[in-house]
Amino acid sequence: MDIGDWLRSLGLGQYEAAFRENEINEQVLPRLTQENLKEIGVGPVGHRRILLEAITALREESRPSNAAAASGSGKRDPGVDAPNADIKVAFDGSTEPSSASKAARTGNSSNWRVAGGR
């Protein structure tokens, strides 16, 4: 991927030299933060937002689902590839170990359940 072409496609070609001087390549690009963009001279908030949204889109395009990568089938298991899924934990106030924590220690997951019924 040519970073200069990518920046120009976003209408932000004026930052090509800054990206080149700071050795921003396709390996570094997906991990750039708002603070990094400030450090390399991307001043206007609007420009940083455009870049961060485009970086997020690149990450999503290049990330294969875990299920598809594991099986090679291309089918996605929504329960496997959910890094940002909401997780709910119930606490009943008891100091006694719950059946879930007992199951975790013993490896017996027959009593486990996910709130929301997935």
Structure, described:
With 118 residues, the chain is mainly alpha-helical. It has a domain at 3-62: DNA polymerase, domain 1. The chain contains six helices and no strands. The longest helix has 18 residues, at 45-62. It is globular and about 35 Å long. The model is unreliable at 108-115 (pLDDT under 50).
In short:
The protein has 118 residues and is mainly alpha-helical. The chain has helices spanning 3-9, 16-21, 34-39, 45-62, 66-71, 99-106. The two termini are 38 Å apart.
Topology:
Blueprint: H1 3-9, H2 16-21, H3 34-39, H4 45-62, H5 66-71, H6 99-106
Helix content: 40-55%
What integer is the average pLDDT?
74
User: Class of the domain at 3-62, according to the CATH hierarchy?
Assistant: Mainly Alpha
SS summary, helix count: 6
From the structure above, extract its key features.
globular; about 120 residues; 6 helices; DNA polymerase, domain 1
